[in-house]
Amino acid sequence: MTDRPSHFLLVTILVLVTVLLISAMRHFSSARRVRAQIADDTAYRDLVERMLKTQEELAASLASVRGSVTQIEGRLAGVEKILKDVG
């Protein structure tokens, strides 16, 4: 008869420990998922910032190239005019 209360107490403690372990594992998993999401968001923001910076640099380069092409067109028009006058 004295074995039953000790068995009941042991089973009760094991059930409580199991519930606590499951709860702790869920909490750990949830926290880990949130950390991974934050890391993904940070990486995405960094990627977007790099993309915007690169896009601005490309726009500046394109403006420079357009200026150079315009200048070359002007010089070419001058050379053509001189060639027409000479020829």
Shape: rod-shaped
Helix content: over 70%
Got a strand count? 0
User: Structural class of the secondary structure composition?
Assistant: mainly alpha
Give a verbal description of the structure.
- The chain is mainly α.
- The chain has one helix at residues 3-86.
- The longest helix is centred in the middle third of the chain and has 84 residues, at 3-86.
- The mean pLDDT is 93.
Helix/strand layout:
Elements (H helix, E strand, L loop, with lengths): L2 H84 L1
Descriptive tags:
single chain, 87 residues, mainly alpha, rod-shaped
Précis, in short:
With 87 residues, the protein is mainly α.
